[in-house]
């Protein structure tokens, strides 16, 4: 069982997050921009590489033909439903409102965008910025582990100061308070 009180652990964990989160968020923002650029460029290349562009174009063409056929059928059934009360009363909802759920070329394009974004995220994780983000997240986790496993508070703050010093963060910043050592 830990020698550090639970409320002290919570305070220290919150302090670690307060110090590391700005760095982590900055890295995530920079990576998000890089991912977006890579995903945009990779979308077309990935579509061509796996042959999705041909399938999507073929589907778009078929959808256009299908939409024309649906409009024609809807028009036909609406027109003939007016000729007889029994026809009009039994006309299906789809023919009255033209509703239908289906896989569309736009949904396929959206899927390709998602795939290219996921691929870009994996590639960005291999860059220096991605490695830096991973290092910061690992440091945050290591600090949490240290806080939960520490036996004394004095030892704990010393170790946290050393760990955070690797990324240029001081545990206690006395200078901002006007304190001189």
Binned, the helix content reads over 70%
The total count of helices amounts to: 7
Ends apart, CA distance between termini: 35 Å
Give the count of structural domains.
Answer: 1
Main beta sheet: none
Order of helices and strands: HHHHHHH
Identify low-pLDDT runs: none
Kindly state the number of beta strands: 0
- The overall pLDDT average reads 79
**Class inferred from helices and paired strands:** mainly alpha
Q: Give the overall shape.
A: elongated
Defining traits:
181 residues; mainly alpha
Describe the protein.
By secondary structure, the chain is mainly alpha-helical. It has one domain (6-173). Helices cover 77% and strands 0% of the residues. It is built from seven helices and no strands. It has helices at residues 6-50, 52-81, 85-89, 93-97, 105-124, 128-149, 153-165. Helix 2 (52-81) packs antiparallel against helix 5 (105-124). It is elongated, with a radius of gyration of 30 Å. The model has no long low-confidence stretch (mean pLDDT 79).
Ordered list of secondary-structure elements with their pairings:
Elements lengths: L5 H45 L1 H30 L3 H5 L3 H5 L7 H20 L3 H22 L3 H13 L16
Quick structural summary:
The chain is mainly α.
């Amino acid at each position: 069982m830990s020698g550090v009180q639970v409320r002290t652990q919570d305070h220290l964990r919150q302090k670690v997050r307060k110090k590391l989160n700005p760095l982590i968020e900055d890295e995530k923002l920079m990576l998000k921009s890089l991912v977006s650029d890579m995903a945009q460029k990779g979308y077309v290349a990935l579509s061509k590489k796996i042959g999705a562009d041909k399938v999507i174009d073929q589907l778009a063409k078929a959808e256009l033909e299908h939409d024309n056929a649906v409009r024609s059928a809807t028009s036909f059934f609406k027109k003939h439903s007016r000729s007889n009360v029994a026809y009009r009363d039994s006309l299906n909802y789809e023919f009255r409102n033209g509703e239908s759920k289906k896989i569309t070329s736009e949904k396929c394009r959206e899927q390709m965008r998602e795939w290219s974004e996921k691929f870009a995220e994996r590639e960005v994780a291999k860059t220096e910025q991605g490695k830096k983000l991973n290092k910061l997240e690992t440091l945050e986790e290591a600090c949490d582990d240290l806080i939960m496993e520490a036996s004394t508070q004095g030892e704990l703050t010393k170790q946290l100061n050393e760990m955070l010093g690797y990324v240029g963060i001081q545990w206690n910043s006395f200078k901002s308070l006007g304190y001189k050592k």
